[in-house]
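Exercise: predict the fold of this chain.
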Amino acid sequence: MIRFIALIFLALAMQTAAAQENDKKEVCIGFRVGSSLLDPKFGNNEANLNDVIQFLNEVRNDTTIELTQVKFCGSASPEGSSKLNRKLAKRRCANMEQYVRQRIMLPEDIIKRQEWSDAWQKLAIYVENSDMPNKKEVLHELLETPEYTYNKYGALVDSRKKRLMDMNYGRTWNYMLDKFFPSVRNASAILVTIRKKNEPAPEPQPEPVVEEPKQPEPVVQPEPVVDTKQPAYFAIKTNMLYDALLVPNVGVEFSLGKRWSVAADWMYGWWSRNKSHRYWRVYGGGLTVRKYFGAKAAEKPLQGHHIGINAQMLTYDIEFGGKGYMGGKPGGTLWDRMNYTVGAEYGYSMPVARRLNIDFSLAAGYMGGRYYEYTPLDGHYVWQATKNRKWIGPTKVEVSLVWLLGHGNYNTKTKKGGEK
């Protein structure tokens, strides 16, 4: 799933020219995940771009100061492969430069470009300034562990990302995803340096050299599977309340990222005893979009408190020897004037094992559709009335057993009474 995350940061380090020889202004521009398109409408980009253009105009019109350098820096998040990230960062750097230079004329000799900045180093700065759990161990992996480790045959055997994802049963990685990555991911900077006129120019500082990682000629495919394979979380479940009422059912739920999920379920029970005219027939299904929240939801996907929107369609035929009620067209299919529900949902998914949850939820809203009243008589079913269902109240109750699947990290430490 596409996730939309941007770093919007504005740092203004302007002081009086008498007190400081060089002043700098830094503006960070956000990009959507995996994209190099500079969208002024994304996040705070429009305000930040207008700010830097206005600042450059003010410097150009000020006779007491002059521009000494305008630097464009490209970057990308550390989640993808280094090769793709470098290409993405280079395109972002070029697009920012094009945007600025189309709106204000700048001499070529003051333009500097840093087409790649190390996002792992940015992440290390956020970790160093935090009080996160296992801080020392995380910094050691960020600063000491190579990004990729190959054996003598050129095959990948280890990586920095893998070690971080495995640390503390995945909780450390999820913590950084939630707390730090929104401030690291997919941002690039414009840095403007000015100085007061009639002062000697400062000694030129050498541009930092970003060395390409030295790697042996690989015998096998060098790009690691672990680096490109995104976590996938989904679950299969059954509503035990429906099972107890002899209505077999099954459902699936897929995580969309950012604690959102979509779920679908289906039920089918078609029981009858013609001798006593006891019918218990129902089939149909529904869709639910959920948003998880709370402490448990931060630990791993598809658990904790959740709210959502639920919609169902169903047909039924229920009769216990006296009077019968049939939802949907007699002899028709689910699509023939089926009954339907739509409502809001609240629930809580409680972990009971590494890949097993119990989900409690209640949906309430509106139920509509046509239904028929009939009376069984001498082996026949005598129609009595046709009515429209107009019900406002509970539309679904769920106590489901949930089996978590996928190749994401579901590891968690549990004790008696649930996860701690």
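Check your answer against the key: The CA atoms of residues 14 and 200 lie 19 Å apart.
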